[in-house]
Q: What sequence folds into this?
């Protein structure tokens, strides 16, 4: 059983996705519990596999028994197990929180929705564990196409946003594919480990350079990092809130993981000039996203630009590529997933059925508290997780010998203070007198998710040193 | 010298627990308030229990886990921490009793949020006091900003919202500067622990010292209300008076000057700052703050705003002492943390009592108040004159030390600033007292006991501290110990 762990989470989610239409024929109301249970089980398996990997080292699995490099390989090392666990765990709670909202919107079509969501998660999980460059593309497309459809379920303006997302997303995926193709042409293999072994031989080749650039460009676009972020604000604003709560925390993280994996581990580009370019792109995204976020009035659009800014931190860390910066970037994958999940869930819950600008803290105190925790984490106030990823990034920036990045990170923090304040002001203030009815908290499923994710935010913060020591530091390239 | 002990951790526990217990007992106000008082008393007891060890030269250390690699969560109790910790804990008791009276008198809303936020703020302030390294300090320092926000916006009015916005902008913005300073220090010094005499390596370029110091001053100077970073303080007076009393006269602003003292004495070292001229620059800012704060107080009609500007002015005595860098100046500065706390909290308590009982907020309406509320105004007058430096008040002792220290340093400008401040204090307090005790006779209608007893107690504290500064709370002994540990040549 243990030897199958690398593929188990993926298989569980995929089977659940395939079961959904069958469920749809008999008992549609089972769709939600099945989805949550499946992803929850998968998350548990992923966590177990993380433990196994930390204890005994990298696990390699040849799918179908076909040996690589011709067979497809699934590789579970610390970084991929970490990414897989984060994605599946956060997704579990995002699905849990979205249940009521999905039911309201899709009445009898729930199984279709959950089939799409589970396919999306299958794609993300596959990306996280794949040891083969082309296999990543396959799963990337599975995830992307289902996400276009998920966004489109919003109807109305969401259709235009989904179409734009589809066009830009396909361009991004095509860039990635083009890059992989170029690498294949010059290395003759698609297996990640094999390519990594051959890189020193081909490093001077223009095909290598071209492949590198196309892969990076494609993944930066998929991540929604400035200046290739155009699809993100509209998609996050117009898609239904339960969709955004699912996509925002995890989809971009899978792209971030892939960027880290290919850029640093497969292509070993941490020392090349393109790494500096990547760092500057991240820095630009931090600032541009922050500035645009401060100007937003609509909460989900604000959170969308905030995501662009926060993802910039991850790209910055990857570009700096020293031990501390990478630890910060990887930690931020976890922390940002948590904080964005909380915020999108909370904003979705707060906007449902509220008349006028009601003081949410008065009507929904638990939701409000969790939203404040997530906001503080985003600003980087200890002891919440966001502070610690920022600390490591700052140390990494200092270690890189370019103090300008320190200033960028601090400026980004100031901007975050600005835009989270606007969000939080609506939480504490308003005209409590005119809101009819007593307090009406969000449903239990939403509250459970919020509370668990908030607790995780605190725990991730307090345990960050442990996480870095056990999982992230040994995961650095070259170790 | 360092002794591992879990006592510092225990000292944080009461306030942390109180937050949860207060929220849980929200439907039973008597139980809820009992938790606050119990926590304050317990915390004071624990902090006082640590005093003998600290006075004997031991440093109680608690280091349960790492916050970041090679940077532990560190609580280390030294004289400075013990002084601030004791101050915050014991004045919390007085403020809780006072708060109960005040919120009942005014039938305030959201009392659970109020008392819970208070407890959380005290948790943060105690953590600031006991922190043994810059990162632990930072964690609690930022928590203090966040925990006090619900108290600033308590009233829920648009003005309160605006005040809260400005408060957060200033304090969180300063936090970002502080974070930059801390990361830079970590890179330069390799560690973040507070050590008497500083942890920076020798031979640092003056530009680095100046840059680092500037960031630290920006980071701590907002809470310490140094001009021109002080603007938030008068605006924050919109908070209920017990909040202004404890937090903005004692906990938050004292955390700011406390941080400055830690930075000067325990991160940089006084000599390092003197060598590059940064000490002199700080001294100039402090002196300017002393004078400008008092001048601004002179023209205020709103009593709380007047007291706020007086706070701005009085707080700057402490960085002034450390900018001078002589033994007496620094001892005086540290002692002033305590002197000012007792006396200013009394003044705010009186202002709140007057507001709650007679519904008067303005100096111009105080005519005859001394006859209506003789005890309250009596305490006000006593505290005001003691704060101005009239013996045998506590501020006289701290000011005397500062003056001696200024003479030792041949810093005549500091002498001028201190004396000018004394005169200005008298200039704005005397008319208030005179107006209160002349004017139309009125029937005596004193503040209720829950308000009166705390303000008399803290006024007595200010007097006792002046009469027996070494015995009362050992405050002068602690202050001298701090000065001795950081004075150049130590």
A:
């Amino acid at each position: 059983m243990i030897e199958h762990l690398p593929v188990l989470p993926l298989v569980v989610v995929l089977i659940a996705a395939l079961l959904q239409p069958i469920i749809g024929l008999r008992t549609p109301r089972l769709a939600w519990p099945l989805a949550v249970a499946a992803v929850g089980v998968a998350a548990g398996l992923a966590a177990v596999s993380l433990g196994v990997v930390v204890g005994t080292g990298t696990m390699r699995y040849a799918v179908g028994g076909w040996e690589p490099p011709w067979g497809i390989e699934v590789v579970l090392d610390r970084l991929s197990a970490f990414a897989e666990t984060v994605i599946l765990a956060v997704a579990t709670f995002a699905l849990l929180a979205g249940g009521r909202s999905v039911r309201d919107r899709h009445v009898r079509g729930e199984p279709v929705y959950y089939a799409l969501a589970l396919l999306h998660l299958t794609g993300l999980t596959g990306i996280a564990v794949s040891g083969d460059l082309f296999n990543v593309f396959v799963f990337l497309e599975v995830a992307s196409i289902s996400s276009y459809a998920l966004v489109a379920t919003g109807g109305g303006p969401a259709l235009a946003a989904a179409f734009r997302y589809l066009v830009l997303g396909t361009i991004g995926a095509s860039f990635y594919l083009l890059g992989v193709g170029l690498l294949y042409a010059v290395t003759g293999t698609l297996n990640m480990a094999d390519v990594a072994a051959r890189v020193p031989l081909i490093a001077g080749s223009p095909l290598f350079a071209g492949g590198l650039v196309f892969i990076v460009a494609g993944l930066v676009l998929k991540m929604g990092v400035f200046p290739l972020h155009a699809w993100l604000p509209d998609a996050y604003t117009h898609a239904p809130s339960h969709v955004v709560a699912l996509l925002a925390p995890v989809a971009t993280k899978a792209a971030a993981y892939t960027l880290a994996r290919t850029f640093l581990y497969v292509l070993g580009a941490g020392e090349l000039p393109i790494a500096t370019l990547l760092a500057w792109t991240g820095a630009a995204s931090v600032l541009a996203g922050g500035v645009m976020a401060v100007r937003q009035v609509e909460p989900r659009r604000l959170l969308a630009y905030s995501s662009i800014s926060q993802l910039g931190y991850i790209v910055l860390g990857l570009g700096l590529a020293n031990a501390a910066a990478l630890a910060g970037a990887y930690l931020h994958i976890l922390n940002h997933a948590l904080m964005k999940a909380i915020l999108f869930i909370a904003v979705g819950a707060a906007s449902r059925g509220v008349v006028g600008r009601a003081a949410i803290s008065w009507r929904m105190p638990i939701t409000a508290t969790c939203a404040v925790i997530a906001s503080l984490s985003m600003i980087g106030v200890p002891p919440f997780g966001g502070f610690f990823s920022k600390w490591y990034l700052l140390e990494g920036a200092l270690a890189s010998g370019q103090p300008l990045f320190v200033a960028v990170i601090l400026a980004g923090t100031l901007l975050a203070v600005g835009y989270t304040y606007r969000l939080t002001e609506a939480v504490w203030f308003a005209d409590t007198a005119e809101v009819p009815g007593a307090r009406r908290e969000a449903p239990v499923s939403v509250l459970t998710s919020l509370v668990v994710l908030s607790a995780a935010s605190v725990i991730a913060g307090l345990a960050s040193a442990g996480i870095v020591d056990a999982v992230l530091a040994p995961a650095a390239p070259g170790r | 010298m360092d002794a591992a002990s879990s006592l510092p951790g225990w000292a944080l526990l009461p306030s942390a627990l109180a937050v949860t217990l207060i929220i849980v007992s929200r439907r039973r106000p008597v139980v809820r308030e009992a938790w606050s008082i119990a926590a304050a008393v317990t915390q004071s007891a624990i902090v006082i229990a640590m005093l003998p060890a600290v006075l004997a030269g031991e440093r109680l250390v608690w280091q349960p886990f790492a916050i970041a690699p090679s940077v532990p969560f560190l609580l280390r109790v030294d004289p400075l921490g013990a002084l601030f910790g004791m101050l915050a804990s014991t004045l919390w008791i007085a403020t809780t009793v006072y708060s109960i009276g005040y919120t009942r008198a005014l039938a305030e809303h959201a009392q659970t949020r109020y008392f819970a936020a208070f407890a959380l703020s005290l948790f943060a302030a105690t953590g600031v006091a006991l922190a043994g390294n810059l990162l632990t300090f930072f964690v609690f320092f930022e928590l203090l900003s966040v925990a006090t926000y619900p108290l600033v916006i308590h009233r829920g009015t648009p003005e309160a919202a605006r005040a809260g916005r400005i408060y957060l902008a200033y304090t969180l913005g300063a936090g970002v500067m502080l974070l930059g300073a801390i990361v830079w220090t970590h890179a330069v010094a390799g560690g973040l622990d507070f050590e008497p005499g500083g942890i920076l390596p020798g031979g640092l370029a003056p530009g680095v010292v100046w840059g680092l110091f500037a960031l630290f001053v920006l980071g701590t100077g907002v809470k310490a209300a140094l001009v021109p970073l002080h603007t938030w303080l008068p605006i924050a007076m919109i908070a209920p008076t017990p909040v202004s009393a404890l937090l903005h006269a004692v906990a938050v602003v004292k955390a700011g000057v406390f941080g400055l003292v830690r930075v000067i004495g325990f991160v940089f070292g006084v000599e390092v700052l003197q060598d590059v001229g940064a000490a002199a620059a700080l001294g100039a800012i402090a002196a300017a703050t002393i004078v400008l704060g008092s001048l601004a107080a002179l023209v205020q009609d709103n009593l709380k705003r007047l007291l706020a500007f007086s706070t701005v002015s009085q707080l700057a005595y402490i960085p002034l002492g450390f900018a001078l860098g002589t033994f007496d100046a620094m001892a005086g500065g540290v002692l002033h943390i305590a002197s000012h706390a007792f006396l200013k909290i009394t003044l705010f308590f009186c202002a709140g009592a007057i507001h709650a009982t007679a519904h008067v907020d303005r100096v111009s309406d105080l005519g005859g108040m001394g006859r209506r509320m003789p005890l309250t105004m009596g305490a006000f007058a006593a505290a005001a004159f003691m704060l101005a430096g009239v013996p045998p008040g506590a501020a006289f002792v701290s000011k005397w030390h500062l003056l001696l220290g200024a003479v030792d340093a041949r810093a005549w400008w500091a002498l001028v600033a201190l004396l000018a401040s004394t005169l200005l204090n008298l200039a704005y307090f005397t008319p208030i007292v005179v107006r209160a005790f002349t004017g139309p006779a009125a029937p005596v209608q004193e503040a209720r006991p829950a308000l009166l007893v705390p303000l008399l107690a803290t006024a007595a504290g200010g007097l006792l501290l002046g009469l027996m500064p070494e015995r009362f709370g050992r405050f002068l002994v602690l202050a001298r110990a701090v000065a001795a540990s950081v004075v150049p040549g130590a």
In short: The CA atoms of residues 14 and 38 of chain B lie 8 Å apart. Chain B is about 75% helix and 5% strand. Chain B touches chain A through 28 residues (CB under 8 Å).
